[in-house]
Design a protein that fits this description.
Elements (H helix, E strand, L loop, with lengths): L1 E2 L6 E2 L36 H7 L5 H10 L3 H33 L3 H30 L7 H11 L3
Antiparallel strand pairs: 1-2
Amino acid sequence: MAHCTKCGAAIADNAGFCGSCGAPQGTGTPAATPLVPNSAPVQTGLEPNVAGALCYALGWVTGLIFFFIDKRPSVRFHATQSIVVFGCIAILYVVLGPLLGVGLFSAGLGVMALFHLIFSLIWLASIILWILLMVKAYQGEKFRVPIAADLADKIFGKA
């Protein structure tokens, strides 16, 4: 029969803790380790290509989520690029939306049509870019959007 190393009480041979004082014992089953150790970065449990594709799924929002929860370089690259690309597109929509509204009420039909055409082309280009980036990330490629990837590197550092 073993004894507690702290209080000296009798404990079972394979006990991990003392029944009297609760002190951990050197013998027996080791204490349960946490699922995510403090020293290791948090990972999503997804394959890098799937996580990279999901960085683009909901635009800058999922990019921001994956930027904070997944520290793998390939996933962080896609996350930062998603934040910059779709963040800029969202800002562009915020700026162009009121211009389109003002064009409806104050400008002529030609100006209104021009604003609507620009707004529609940006929307179409962003959908095509969204699909392209998701497919390339799923294939494991680091497709760099020319200006956005450089801007992401400057803001967030090299991934």
